[in-house]
Amino acid sequence: MGLATDQPQPTMEPSPLPQTYWHVVCELAELTPEHGVTALVRGIQIAVFRLYDDRVFAVGNIDPFSGAAVLSRGIVGTRGSAATVTSPLHKQVFDLVTGHCLDHPQVSVPRYDVRLVNGKVEIGFP
Amino acid sequence: MFSAGQRNLVVVGNGMVGQRFVELLAEGDPDRAWQVTVIGEEPRPAYDRVALSSFFDGSTAEDLNLVPDGFYDDASYALLVNEEVVSVERAERQVITSAGRVLPYDALVLATGSYPFVPPVPGSELPNCFVYRTIDDLEGIRAAVAAARSRNRGRSAGMVVGGGLLGLEAAHALRLLGISPHVVEMAPRLMPLQVDEGGGQLLRSLIQALDVTVHLGTSTAQIVTDGERLLATLTNGTELDLDVVVFSAGIRPRDQLARNCGLAVGGRGGITVDEGCRTSDEHIYAIGECALVDGRIWGLVGPGYTMASVVADRLLGGGTTFTGADMSTKLKLMGVDVASFGDAMASAEGALEVAVSNPVAGSYAKLVVDDQAQTVLGGVLVGDASKYSTLRTLVGRDLPGDPVALIANVEDTGNRLVLADDAQVCSCANVSKGAICSAITEQGLTEVGEVKANTKAGTGCGSCVSLLKSLLAESGVAISKALCEHFAMSRAELFDIVRVMQLRSFSEIVSGYGTGRGCDICKPVIASILASLNTGHILDGEQAALQDTNDRYLANIQKDGSYSVVPRIAGGEITPQGLIAIGQIAEDYGLYTKITGGQRIDLLGARVEQLPEIWRRLVDAGFESGHAYGKALRTVKSCVGSSWCRYGVQDSVTLAIDLELRYRGLRSPHKIKAGVSGCARECAEAQSKDVGVIATENGWNLYVGGNGGFRPRHANLLLIDVDRESLIRTIDRFLMFYVRTADRLQRTASWVESLGGGVDGIAYLRSVIVEDSLGICADLDEAMAAHVANYADEWRGVLEDPDRLSRFVSFINAPGTPDPTISFRAERGQIRPVGPVPLTVSSKAGSSQAGSALEVIG
Ligand code: SRM
Ligand SMILES: Cc1cc2nc3c(=O)[nH]c(=O)nc-3n(C[C@H](O)[C@H](O)[C@H](O)COP(=O)(O)OP(=O)(O)OC[C@H]3O[C@@H](n4cnc5c(N)ncnc54)[C@H](O)[C@@H]3O)c2cc1C
Ligand code: SF4
Ligand code: FES
Predict the structure, then answer these.
(1) Which of A25, B204, B299, B809 is packed most tightly, with the most Cβ within 10 A?
(2) Nearest beta carbon to residue A64 from set B544, B813, B839
(3) Cβ(B596) – ligand 1 distance below 6 Å
(4) What is the ipTM for the molecules in this complex?
(5) Window 555-584 of B, Cβ < 8 Å to A
C-alpha cells in the first residue's frame, strides 16, 4: 500500500490517523505451522495462518459458502504454487495470498496485510 | 409491493411447470424487472406430481412440496393458493379470480396443466369414483378405502379404468392400500402407447403375478350402486363387485380459460402456441400440459420444464425456442421395470426391430433401428430396464455394434458405450453429456449429489442417476490411483511406504514421496495412516495440522461452525447414572440432545472453547471419546440378546461391548460400524454393518462388508458357527487388512467387492484372512494386538495436556470470547441454530454447497 499516493480518507474517528491500523494479535511462536487460528479485531473475525516457511497470511474467517465462521479451521496446503486453505464445511479451496476461491472464481474472502514486529504478528486494517 | 418500472406478470396455475417457470425467472431476473403473482387453484403450493403415488408409500404432502423454503417471501413474488382464475379479460389485460380479485398484467402465463379424462360411462359420477391427479384425489381414495375396509370383512376390490402408464400407477397405489385391483383396458395390451405387443404380453404376465386382474380389449359399460358397494359391468359381460373406481383413461389439456377469451386452441384441445410458447395473443404464453406446441400435447414434465425455460428466457429478452423433447419413459410398476424410448413402435418407414425375449428371467427388450440398420430409433424394455439410461441416449445416433449384444443380458455393455457430447443424458432437465462433463471438470465435482445440484440432471424421475455415476467415473474422478496432486500413489501404497520406511511426520513423507505441501485430501489420509500405526496422540506435533476439522477438535462440525459431542456408549448399554450425567451436562451447557442412529446420544451446539469443559465433565462421569468425528470404529450396535430376550441364543450385548472396546480408536480409511444380534431375528441389523455378528445355537456367524448409507449392501457371510476366539481373530484380520489396503474413503462394502480383481471378493478375502494364503496373518494379528495395547482415550489425552488444550479457543487474542456468529433459537424445548446465511448469491456456488450438504446427511 503506497502511502504517498493515497488520498486521505474521510473518517469518523478522531484525526489524525494513519492509513492502516496495525493490530497485534499474537506472538509468532504461538502459531503452529499450517494450523490456523482466529483473531477478533474490532468485531471482525480474521483467520491467520503461519505457513511451513514461516510466512504469515490473514483472510476473513467467514466461509462465504456457508456463512459460518470456520476458515481458520480448514486444512492448509498448496494447489500448484498457490498456498491455500480448504473450507472445513464443504471443501472449497481459497488462495491465502489473494483471498480468491479457486473453485468458484467469482467468490472471494477479504485478505488483510500482515507484518512481523519483534516476533509479534500484526494485522493491518484499512 | 410495486417499485417503479416493474412490469406485472401473472401466472395461472402453480403446478410443476408453473413453479419451475417462476424459479427460472427469479434466477434470471435478479433486479426484479417483473412483479410476479402466481394463482393456484389447489389448496397447496406446487408439489411433485410425478412422485404422487409415493403418497401411498409413506410420503406426506410436505415431502412432495416443490417450493423452495422462503421462495415467496420475496417482495416481487406472490403466491395465492386455493383461488382459481375464472376469466381473462384480454382487452383490459387483466384476470379475475374466484375471490373476486382483479389482477392486471403486462404478460400472462397459462400453466393450467390438464385434467383426467373420464369416459362417458353411466355411473361415473357416483360416490367412490375417483380420478388420479392431485393430492386431494389421493386423500379421497384413501378415505374411501378406509371406509370400505371398516365395513368389509373380506378383501376390498377396486377397478382402474385405463391400462396405460397412469392406470398401472393407480393400480399400484390401490395395491399399496391393500386393495385387489382390476385394470380395464380397451386396447389389446397394457401401456399401448409405450410398449409393443411382445412387451405388453410379458408385462401382463408380470403384473398378473402380482395380484392384479387385467381385462384387455374391453371397456366399462356401466356402474351402479349395490348397497354400499359399486357394481361395474364390462362390455364383455364381466361383472365386478367394487369398493372404489379410479378413472385413468388419459388426460385433456385445461384450455377452458383460453377458449373463453378467444385464444386459438387446437382441434382436439390444447392452447395453440408458437415455438416461443406464445399464444395467439402476444401478451399471453402457455406452458406445460395445457400447451399445444408443434401440434401436440407433451404429457411429461421434462418437455414442460423446457417450455418453462423458453418463456422465462423470452420474458427477459431472449429468443429461445422449443424444439421438441425426449418422450422416453421409464417406470417401476410394482417392482416391474418398464421403459420405452424414441420410436418405440417402429413407426418410421422401413424401421427394423430386434427383440430379445427371455420369459424365464422375465425380461423383454426391443431395439428399433432404421432400414439400413445403422441408426438407433428407439426401443422397449420390460422386466429389466437397467440399460435404459444408456440406450436412450443412443437414439438418433449410429448403432455402436451388434444390436442383439446391446440389448441382451451381457454384463457391462452399458458402461462400454461411448456417448457423444451432445447426447442427452437427463431428459427431465434436458442436460447433455457435454454439460455434465464440463461441470464435473470445471467445478471439480466428485459426487452424484454435486452433479445434481450443479446441473439439475438427475433431479426429476431419477432414472439417469446411474449414468451420472459412470460419467463421473469416466471423467477420471475415481480412475487415477493418484491420491491427489501431491501424491502419485494410492492410499494402500502410501500406507506400505510409511509403514516399511517407518516415516513419522508429514514433512518427511511429502518431501520424500510427494510434492508441494499437501491438501485437504492427502493430509487427512496421512493423519489416518500415522494414527493406524500407533504414532501417539493425533494432536501432537505436525499431526495436528493434518487433521480434518472434526479430528482436530475431536468433535463433529455442524453447519453453523458449532460442534457436536458424542461420548462412547459401548453396545448401546448405559446406566441410569450415565444417562443422568449426560442429561445434566447437556442441561448445564444448553446443548441439543438427540438419540443417534448408532444407539448413543449426540449433544449438539457446543462452541470450540466449551468442548474441553464439557469433556472434563464427561470424563469425570466415566465417559470417553466415541470417535463420532473420526474415520474410525463408530459403534457396535447390539440387541438385548439372551440375557433378557425370550428368543436370544447368545449374549449379544456382552460381545458387542467387548468388540467395541477392542476396536475403539482404530483409525481406518473410512468409518467402521459393527452390530451383534442375539438370534436370527437380527434386531441389531448386523447384516447392514461393516462387521456383523449373528448368534446361532452353536456359536456365531460372521458377516462382513455390509453398508447402509448411499448405496446399501448386505454383508457377506464369512464364517459359520464359530467360537468367540476364532470370531475375534478373524475380525482382527479383516479390519487390519482393510486398514492397510483400502482406498481413501472406501467403506468395507466396496473394498470387499473390489478384492481379487473384483471377481469374487469374499472368496479372496477368505483365502487371505482365514486360510492365510498371503502369509500375512501373523503380521495382521500383531498389528491389532499393538492397537489394543496402545489404546488411550483421546479426550482424556487432551484434558491432561495444556499444550493440546490450548488449541481449543475461539479467538487467539480473546480466548474467553464466544464466536458471535453462533446463535440459537428454541424449537420443541431445545436449541436450534439460527443461520448461518451464506454470503454468496452465485447460484452455482450456492447450489454446490446445497449439493454436498445433501450428501452428508445421516
Ligand atoms: C448423528 C447421526 C445421525 C443421527 O442423529 O442419528 C449421523 C450423523 C452424521 N452422519 Fe451418519 N449419522 C449417524 C448414523 C448413521 C447410520 C446408521 C448407523 O450407523 O447404524 C448410517 C448408515 C449406516 C452406514 O454407515 O453404513 C449413516 C450413514 C452416513 C453416511 C453414508 C455412508 C456410506 O457409506 O454411504 C455418511 C457420509 C460419509 O460418511 O461420508 C454419514 C455422515 C454423517 C455425518 C458425520 C456428516 C458430517 O460429516 O457432518 C453426520 C454428522 C454427525 C454429527 O454428530 O454431527 N453418515 N449414518 C448418527 C450417528 C451415529 C453414531 O452414534 O455414531
Ligand atoms: C400420477 C402421475 C404420475 C406421473 N408420472 C410422470 C412421470 O413419471 N414422468 C413424467 O414426465 N410425467 C409424469 N406425470 C405427468 C406430470 O405430472 C405432468 O406432466 C406435470 O405435472 C405437468 O405440469 P403442469 O404444470 O403443466 O400441470 P400441473 O402439474 O397439473 O399443474 C397445473 C396446475 O394449475 C392449476 N390450475 C388449472 N387451472 C387453473 C386456474 N384457472 N386457476 C388457478 N389454477 C389453475 C391446477 O390446479 C394445477 O395445480 C405424472 C402425472 C401423474 C398424475
Ligand atoms: S435379535 Fe433375537 S435376541 Fe436379539 S432382541 Fe431380536 S429376537 Fe431377541
Ligand atoms: S432423466 Fe429424469 S431425472 Fe434425469
Answers:
(1) A25
(2) B839
(3) yes
(4) 0.69
(5) 557, 559-561
Is residue B82 scored above 90 in pLDDT?
Answer: yes
d(CA B837, CA B64): 25
Interior/surface letters B338-371, b for 16+ CB within 10 angstroms, e for the rest: bbbbbbbbbebeebebbbbbeeeeebbbbbbbbe
Q: How far apart are CA B687 and CA B715, in angstroms?
A: 5
Which residue range forms the structural domain that includes residue A89? Answer: 32-125
- pLDDT exceeds 90 at position B554: yes
Q: Is residue A22 situated within a structural domain? A: no
Cβ of residue A54 closer than 8 Å to a chain B Cβ: no
Structural domains of chain A, count: 1
In a domain, A5, yes or no: no
- Taking an 8 Å cut-off on Cβ atoms, the answer to whether B812 and A78 are in contact is no
pLDDT tens, A53-73? 999 999 999 999 989 999 999
Res. B478 pLDDT band, cuts 50 70 90:
low
Using the predicted structure, report yes or no on whether residue B358 has a pLDDT greater than 70.
yes
pLDDT at position B3 over 90: no
Measured from the alpha carbon of residue B330, the closest ligand is: 2
List the single range of B11-25, B142-156, B518-532 with lowest mean pLDDT.
B142-156
Q: What are phi and psi of B204, to 5 degrees?
A: -60, -45
Q: Are B384 and B357 in contact (CB under 8 A)?
A: no
Give domain status of residue A8, yes or no. Answer: no
* Residues in A 66-95 with any Cβ partner in B closer than 8 A: 66-70, 73-80, 83-84, 86, 88-93
Is residue A62 in a domain?
yes
Domains present along chain B, CATH in parentheses: 7-115+253-315 (3.50.50.60), 129-249 (3.50.50.60), 326-416 (3.30.390.30), 419-475 (1.10.10.1100), 633-790 (3.30.413.10)
CA atoms in the 13 A half-sphere facing the CB of B595: 5
CATH code of residue A120: 2.102.10.10
Cell numbers found for residue B453 = 445440484
Contact A34 B517 (CB under 8 A): yes
